[in-house]
Design brief:
Layout: H1 18-78
């Protein structure tokens, strides 16, 4: 038998006491609740951003149309 082989003498993993385990699960549960709240808030922010992007696009189109109309008006007045 090999005396350098310590695999047979390894200690089993230490189990946490029930109170510590319960506290750990409560902590994980609280973190999961916060994560779910943050995900819901993120979803709302994404929806609002999409709506704002549509409005920004319309604003850009209107701005471009006004610029082209002003350019045409200035050319007609200059001639």
């Amino acid at each position: 038998m090999d005396t350098n082989n310590n695999s047979a003498f390894k200690k089993p993993p230490k189990l946490q006491p029930p109170l510590q385990q319960l506290q750990h699960y409560n902590s994980l549960n609280n973190q999961l609740t916060r994560l779910q709240q943050n995900m819901a808030k993120l979803e709302e922010n994404i929806k609002l951003t999409v709506e704002q992007l549509k409005n920004i696009q319309r604003f850009g189109l209107a701005h471009g149309a006004i610029f082209m109309a002003a350019n045409r008006t200035m050319r007609n007045n200059a001639s």
